Amino acid sequence: MKPVPTGKGLAVVTGASSGIGYELARCAAENGYDLAIAANEPEILEAATKLKEFGVQVEALQVDLATPDGVRRFVDAVSALGGPVDLLMANAGVGLGHGFLDQDLDEAQRVVDTNVTGTIRLVHAIGNRMRGRGEGRILFTGSIAGFMPGAYQAVYNATKSFINSFSFALRDELKDSGVTVTCLMPGPTDTEFFERADLLDTAVGQGKKDDPAFVAKAGFKAMMDGEGDVVAGWKNKVMSAVANVTPAGMLAGQHRKMAEPGSGT
């Protein structure tokens, strides 16, 4: 990466090659922020080209944030840009369908390494710099899936439960620091997530989904307003409210109906 000229500020976005991550990066670019973006696929370079059309500087890195080395490489690349990080949007995440014992264990572990381990490594590194200067905004992409035991998505839902909880805890720890923490909790969103997670033959995979641009705008606004959390879409707000008062066993059964292979046929 080459140094980015100082503009309105620098926004760091992970998982920005497509979907919610790309739209979050787009929100930042539309608001005049230069970008440092990352994803583990070559499409991140195509995303960078499109984002440059907003007249901001964009530096992209194809890197595997599921690994300590990948996170370190990205943090080093961001540091090389020379300026402070004003916005950190930790969006990178992967899913995995089917029953846990039927999953490849390495693939299941990768869900944890990407959604949890890589995320907290990145936030620890950049969050410390924000706290040191007494300024910054952090946005996590959690999920309403984190409110439900995820039968046939057990590992993924558990990772999102971690992110939801972690974001609230970190927000409280940083409440007097000048650094805000926000958690975006979308429902099913029209991205490549369901194809990559092998969920296309499920009810949730075939059901109606939210527009990723709508979801990202809700999250970006909440972050800029310093809100603690936002659930995008009124149906998802209802689902999250109901989940908070429904026994876990019932929630797991409901999730089975959505995510069990063949439930969409």
From TrEMBL:
Protein name as annotated: Oxidoreductase
Domain of life: Bacteria
Organism: Pseudorhizobium pelagicum
Ranges of residues in domain Ketoreductase: 9-191
Family from the record: Belongs to the short-chain dehydrogenases/reductases (SDR) family.
GO molecular-function term, one example from the UniProt record: oxidoreductase activity
Keywords: Oxidoreductase
Pfam families: adh_short
Family annotation (CDD domains): SDR_c (cd05233)
InterPro entries, sorted: KR_dom, NAD(P)-bd_dom_sf, Sc_DH/Rdtase_CS, SDR_fam
